[in-house]
Predict the 3D structure of the following.
Amino acid sequence: MTIQDLPALNALLNTCAALCMVAGVIAIKKKRESLHKTLMLTAVAFSALFLVSYLTYHGFGESKKFLVQGFWRYAYFTMLITHVVLAVVTVPLVLMSVVRGLKDQRGPHRRIVRIAFPIWLYVSVTGVLVYFSVHVWQ
């Protein structure tokens, strides 16, 4: 594996995080708390690994540019900007929700998760779309 392989790894890690998040929500709706906890902590681990890989790639690798013009360029940059801004917002929200969940503070955990989950899922899914937009589709 080389530094140039990291974007594909990042997309895989984001996909795994998103799948674990969705499965975690399904688990808690079915009152399977232990499975929910395992899935959500696994999603956090995938996201943490993504962050390390992402920072490594952008610190040492050569980023590819989005070259498409017209409508798709505007669509891509709108997605990218919202992805980056919300990624920054996601980190403290996820950390707060994890701490509340592990401390069994269910009320505060639920209140934070109502905000954190859709943002975190959006960031993970758009991360994969950013990868495909730059590395696969153009």
